[in-house]
Amino acid sequence: MRLDRTEPAEHHYWSASSSTPTTRSLVRIVLLGKTGSGKSNLANTIFGEKLFTTNHTPNSGTSECQAETRCVNERSITLIDTPGFFDAGRSEEEMKPKILRCITECAPGPHAFLIVLKVEKFTEHEQAVITKICQYFTEDALKYAVIVFTHGDQLPKGMKIEDFVSQNENLSDLMKKCGGRCHIMDNKYWKNKQQNSYRSNLVQVDELLNTIDKMVVENKGCYTNRVLQEVEKEIQREEEIIKQSSGNLPPQEIRNQAKTKVSEKFLIQLAGTGTGALLGAFFGVAVMVRLVLTALCNSRKILCLIRSHWNIFCQIQC
């Protein structure tokens, strides 16, 4: 599917001083990439503990969207691990709830997208993934993107990741679109504690987080658009309802329940909207943003009409 890029990207900045990374603010980071690229292992490496489910079978990979929050180097960070949104052959029925879950988990918007790729020979399949990423990501969304390579042990001795990227035209082009932001990890072999070694996860995690800090400051906060903002408004409405009916639940539990309810509600309201439109809206493609907002608006009008007729019917019966 080719997306129309003749229209500008739909984007807004979620203006809040707390968006700058401090010990008191939350930084939301979404991990994206094909199945088997090492997203879950990368998330565990960043947090320094095994929180995200990993598998090692040929067809393994993250099956559900998973979010975890921890403090890393005086930063409060939420990592959102995703299934292979850019994989070929995924059904609409399978992917739609997972995309919506990702959108609700990162509302009102992520501070960073980590595009996760493996250090390996690039086949047609890998090229297709990069093509899809470039197809869906607007220029504005790419301002919030960082490429992170996994399987760093496959990098030839003495070579830096920038040298590896320069060997592939499509990779080089993607890195330029991401502002030259590129890092490398190895979730299995680079576990040494050396603080001055290029091939050390300790060093690379620190450099990655510094890159994200700088990016957030330059972007004046997190990435957002009207769909993400609409989702956040719905979450806040649900939070108020839960607060009134559930007593003294912890704020995070209230938030989690609200996100689940909104995700389920939007899945019903967007039943006729394709996954391509949802991904396009997530990444700010203007026509897709309008399509999703229109679908939500029409769904609510229908629900209001049904409620109105039901109330009239009840009054007649009484």
TrEMBL record:
<keyword id="KW-1133">Transmembrane helix</keyword>
<dbReference type="InterPro" id="IPR045058">
    <property type="entry name" value="GIMA/IAN/Toc"/>
</dbReference>
<dbReference type="InterPro" id="IPR006703">
    <property type="entry name" value="G_AIG1"/>
</dbReference>
<protein>
    <recommendedName>
        <fullName>AIG1-type G domain-containing protein</fullName>
    </recommendedName>
</protein>
<dbReference type="Pfam" id="PF04548">
    <property type="entry name" value="AIG1"/>
</dbReference>
<keyword id="KW-0342">GTP-binding</keyword>
<keyword id="KW-0812">Transmembrane</keyword>
<keyword id="KW-0547">Nucleotide-binding</keyword>
<keyword id="KW-0472">Membrane</keyword>
<feature type="domain" description="AIG1-type G">
    <location>
        <begin position="24"/>
        <end position="232"/>
    </location>
</feature>
<feature type="transmembrane region" description="Helical">
    <location>
        <begin position="266"/>
        <end position="293"/>
    </location>
</feature>
<dbReference type="InterPro" id="IPR027417">
    <property type="entry name" value="P-loop_NTPase"/>
</dbReference>
<comment type="similarity">
    <text>Belongs to the TRAFAC class TrmE-Era-EngA-EngB-Septin-like GTPase superfamily. AIG1/Toc34/Toc159-like paraseptin GTPase family. IAN subfamily.</text>
</comment>
<dbReference type="GO" id="GO:0005525">
    <property type="term" value="F:GTP binding"/>
</dbReference>
